[in-house]
Amino acid sequence: MHALILAGGKGTRLRPLTVYTPKPIVPFLNRPFLLYQLEILQRAGIEDITLSLSYQPDKIEQILGDGSEYGVRLRFITEPSPMGTGGAYKFAAHDVRDTTVVLNGDILTDLDISAAIAFHRAKKATATIVLAPVENPSAYGLVETGDDDRVLRFREKPSAEELAGLRTNTINAGIYILEPEVLDLIPEGQNHSFEYNVFPDLLSSEKPFYAYILKDEYWRDIGNPESYLQGHHDFLSGRISGFEIETGGRAEISHTAIVDRNSIIDDDTIVKPNARVINSVIGKGVLVEEKAIVENSVVWSHTRIAHGAEVRRAVVGRSCHIGKNVSVTDGAVLGDKTSLTDYTKT
Ligand code: GDD
Ligand code: MG
């Protein structure tokens, strides 16, 4: 068994965080995001993983290496220009002779992939798509299923009008198990989409196309800043299980600083006297100076938060300088190297 991770999108909705860092390796809980996907694949015994890249591929390859550090074997395929999700699968066809698990590279889940594979095999499916129930399905691919778990309809990002006519809240979770014959539905060398082309074609061909519906598993697309931050909070509040996160044993925290038990602070970070870090994730080599407050936020490495500054419910990129008494408030997202003059309010 083999896996293909679609990691070639530009990550536009996650800007400015993705200006210098492609979405697949944005730090999540201080580790490159894709490591969580490698981990669930490896748990299912899938160690041969191809990453399908297009945007800033060298950075991704450099960070992940050959995968041996994570117990997997990684291969990288870079499209000359983005081929679309289905086109990317076809472009990697040399690597996908076998049954393949395909993952969107921006979803965070603790799904037991081996259970989904067992379902796929039991159904003798040509394709199985994992579905997640969500409250607001409009930003996703909506999928209607029958009593026997067959997929009846797939509609990518329906209009509000159309949405009203669809009787389902189950969406495409961006995890597919595909037999190689799916490749026959995709033209060579063209931009092609699973969502707009391949899945509708599978339905009209009446091939066995099934849905594996998530129940208690965690699932989230971290592809916009709000969701990225919420994913962190879900972890800090214990809603995601099974991933071990090391908290920095080598952080230097003043006796008079307060760091709550939820927060995760990476190595070489300094939290100075009377500073407070509450329910937050802080990367390596960050300086939180006297009386500064970081609350419900994510701060990437090598940022400096000066005396008396407040960062609340925000995401702060790498190597930023938040000046004295600055107030960074709800929903702010600061790209790498942002510098805020003392007393700035966002
Ligand atoms: N290699 C490659 N080439 N990868 C691509 C390309 C491409 O041309 N285009 C997109 N991708 C990758 C992205 O990097 C991302 O990991 C994944 O494909 C999905 O793209 P998104 O841009 O994040 O799509 P979305 O979130 O709007 O919608 C998709 O995901 C939803 C679940 O999160 C769809 O699959 C929806 O149907 C689904 O509900
Ligand atoms: Mg997405």
Which labels suit this protein?
346 residues, alpha/beta, Spore Coat Polysaccharide Biosynthesis Protein SpsA, Chain A, UDP N-Acetylglucosamine Acyltransferase, domain 1, seven-stranded mixed beta sheet, 7 helices, 29% strand, binds guanosine-5'-diphosphate-alpha-D-mannose, binds magnesium ion
In a few lines, what is going on in this structure?
The protein has 346 residues and is an alpha/beta fold. The protein is 19% helix and 29% strand. The strands form 7 sheets. It has a 7-stranded mixed β-sheet, with helices on both faces.
Describe the structure.
By secondary structure, the protein is α/β, with parallel strands linked by helices. It has two domains: 235 residues, Spore Coat Polysaccharide Biosynthesis Protein SpsA, Chain A, CATH 3.90.550; 89 residues, 3 Solenoid (UDP N-Acetylglucosamine Acyltransferase, domain 1). The chain contains seven helices and 29 strands. The strands form seven sheets. A seven-stranded mixed β-sheet has the order 5-4-1-6-11-8-12, with helices on both faces. It has a six-stranded parallel β-sheet with strand order 14-17-20-23-26-29, with no helix packed on it. Strands 15-18-21-24-27 form a five-stranded parallel β-sheet, with no helix packed on it. β9 and β10 form a beta hairpin. α3 crosses α6. The termini are far apart. The model has no long low-confidence stretch (mean pLDDT 94). The structure holds guanosine-5'-diphosphate-alpha-D-mannose and magnesium ion (MG). The site of guanosine-5'-diphosphate-alpha-D-mannose (GDD) has 25 residues, from β1, α3 and β11.
